[in-house]
């Protein structure tokens, strides 16, 4: 049982991460990574909403100090007192204290059958969803299944009693949980290997995209949103600039049911409206749930090289050419282009093959996009940024309008920026690379300067080996291949101030002197050898 001190003291981020990862370890032996991910993240969420609820409940009592006990108790049960302060309403059967008291379950009586702790947690989740519209259909309800070890689940409830997502108000608690939730998404993505990449994009990559696009306000869209990391980083961008997070509205879609639920929970944790993710998981190609939405920004990391997808040749989204039946890469890019508002911009993570492939007409689609003026930048990323895949990746940036205006004072019509960042970053272990803050800002500032954004000082200039602004004519001459290394060239060596003729004369003199000395030393050696004989 946790001590009174532990019950009252807010947990630090490190304490929470350590405690909760131990919780995951308890389940690892009895189920696969994807299952224990749902169990642990579900409990994390349940503990958070209950702690935040209890903190708000105590705050109500403090605010009404001096009022009658009856009035305080009545106010503490007023849903609006919680919802109006960014706190979920938690019904009695969903409160952590209630569940902790029944961690071993409820034995059978003549009036009801036995209830396991898993059954009780399932009911708690259903109660939360009924009480909070934004959580409807989102929370996991599989805790009572036969394949869940109920003894270990009860132990998890006991262990979670030592973790508290409270202290400093609902906003601080939400920030702490958000950090822990992202930590776990990262851990589970690594545990699941390649499949983990389907729901999780490394934060360093997402930060880079967000810092380039700078989504200060408007509609942000992700057609394959995974666990919602793109939206979370967009909101954090606003926080870093002390701007209102409600300046952006998010719209997304996700095919996988479990991943869609993760995204809804993730957004709810961060206080982001989840209605834009729809009421159900859906296939973007088979059924676009936002057919009339026009996005100011698109951030996406689509699954690469999908061979089996819902393709219709007459689809109006294929403005630049019908994508091949056995690869959806250019379908994703054209879908995204179809969603962009006239002044909108997009960043799309793609496999490196998209930059030069001519298979299935992809070369002609790429040519049409370049000549249509919608490609603004190609960024080559270093290997090993994505732990779950060895496929080299790049980022395509699109802009419907590259002329001087709201998105930059420099007219870049007829130009494409190429950035080769393959040598940037550092290894955090044997298999994974990441970007530092300086790395991210170096890449972002290059793009911003190229567009002439007011947010950075200095003018853009080509940098051999790193960046180059190429004209459509140059790209046409290269056969519309978009590999940045083809354009940026090699790193320029430091200029030698010594004239070539003078250098040749100096080196000749030095070499002649060295040869003369060698001849002299050879004679000395032969003389000494003769004496020995």
Characterise the protein shown here.
It is built from 18 helices and 10 strands. The chain is an alpha/beta fold. Helix 13 (329-339) links the parallel strand 3 and strand 4 (340-351). The longest helix is centred in the C-terminal third of the chain and has 33 residues, at 500-532. The relative contact order is 0.08. The model is unreliable at 1-10 (pLDDT under 50).
Keywords:
533 residues; alpha/beta; eight-stranded mixed β-sheet; two-stranded antiparallel sheet; globular; disordered N terminus
The proportion of residues in beta strands is 5-15%
Query: What is the count of DSSP helices, taking H or I runs of 4+ residues?
Result: 18
Task: Measure the end-to-end span.
Answer: 93 Å
| Major sheet characteristics | 8 strands, mixed
Structural class: alpha/beta
Q: If you average the pLDDT, what whole number results?
A: 86
Strand order of the largest sheet: 2-1-3-4-6-5-7-10
Rg measurement, Å: 30 Å
In N-to-C order, the SSE pattern is HHHHHHHHHHEHEHEHEHEEEEEHEHHH
> Low-confidence parts, pLDDT < 50 over ≥5 residues?
1-10
Shape: globular
Strands, total number? 10
* Fraction of residues in helix: 40-55%
